[in-house]
Amino acid sequence: MRAPISSLFLLPLVSGALLLAPLMAIGGETLFPTSRTDINPKDQRRVESVTRPATDFSKPEQFETMQGGAATTRALVNGDAFSHFSVNLDFDEEEKFKLGNALFRKLWVSSPSSTQASDGLGPLFNARACQSCHLKDGRGHPPEGSADSTSMFLRLARPARTDDEREAIADIRKLNFPDATYGEQLQDLAVPGLKSEGRMQISYEEIPITLGDGEVVQLRKPTYSAVDLGHGPLEGDVTLSPRVAPPMIGMGLIQAVHEADILAKADPDDKDGDGISGKPALTRDHKTGDLKLGRFGFKAQNASVRDQSSGAFAGDLGISTPDKPFDHGDCTKAEAECLAMPTGVQERLGPVEAPDPVLELVTFYSENLAVPARRDIADPTVLRGKELFYQSGCTACHTPKFVTRRDAGNKAHAFQLIWPYSDFLLHDMGEGLADGQQVGVADGREWRTQPLWGIGLTETVNEHTFFLHDGRARNLTEAILWHGGEGQNARDAFASLSKDGRAALVKFLESL
Length: 512
Fold this sequence. Notes:
Layout: H1 7-10, H2 16-24, H3 41-50, H4 91-105, E1 124-125, H5 130-133, E2 152-157, H6 163-170, E3 189-190, E4 199-210, E5 216-227, E6 239-244, H7 251-255, H8 259-263, E7 281-284, E8 291-294, H9 305-317, H10 336-339, H11 356-367, H12 380-391, E9 402-403, E10 417-418, E11 426-428, E12 446-448, H13 458-462, H14 476-481, H15 488-495, H16 499-510
Antiparallel strand pairs: 1-3, 2-6, 4-5, 7-8, 9-10, 11-12
Helix pairs in contact: 4-11, 9-11, 12-16
């Protein structure tokens, strides 16, 4: 049953104190615990000890190599570095992982088809398989030099217009509202006999940035538009938010971070005066409607890996699941031809195109893609870069480590010291990165802190180094220099370093 929330508490522009109030108590009942409920005082002291920020940068910290705890993979570093299973799975779980992998790579086809277990694609879609976006379980990219935008798309959303709509957002029943014609995202592919909605167009402006030692770095500022629209223009107040597919590693471990540990780092009113005001995201479970703490997605709009997976099935593939039983995907009432197309629902298989065994297996696979082990952690330049990462203030948002909860749903994720380098909170990243799109309590300048583990293997796995939510940054230096808002001070500290200092910090990131 959905808990009611006063709209006073969750309007996006209210103060941080009011924002945190419903996280602690709704209708007299605690929604999220303010302290760890899964461990005893002795364990709590151990957790506090091992997660204490580093102060000695002359040598690696204990267990630093094992970024994903006991689930970390030490497999040979190559193009499959993000595709290994958590090494602490048992034999039966390993089999479940492999079944999920097969479904993750599965190419869906349009209906009707003789391949009845694989039809139901679209009718409008952005990809035919999960793997098509999450290339080798890694990071997507902009369509550089080609029309291929399979691993990147545009989210479409408008703000609330009426009191009822504002109340729906305040109550977290809605995160925003879709375009009346094109829905929640622009789909550039369609099944045979149906035209696509349109396509994304990107243009770039080069912006020179002069660093403290005089070196000039060129940043590229993107402008996005939706062109070749098949059903007329978008609504006037609809915003376009570009998204590249994020890497898949460590998601089950992120899910196992205790809510109290995330909320402990929230400071919406910046009471400590450090210029960082991390804000927790609230969202609803796709199946039950229960209020949860958001932690997945670029704006933390999903609470669980299952929610993230069901959303991708619906929006990216147009495949219905028990949690999002929309057989025509993102088709709207204005797209009558789309709604008239056949679906892949087979009565003998159940009421949706991807019944629960499919969603469950893909979710399990996504929860157990292992984090690769750190590399070169004792290298003097890496250690110097780590020290500069701390000194520059990067850890104010990119929290190095957590200990996951003892009562995690999968024992492979339970009570593990992990190093994601994220606080999983929303932060104002400045006008330069703003997309203008509200997603629940996240406004148009706010983004979830992205985990950094595995970032140094992006080129190895995906053969590119495009970073940030839209891939505008062509390398890690550019990604740092795009930080504004709450990240401005850290960005400026990096920009003021010597060339060797900047190279050391980047080498540290490449070791993750």
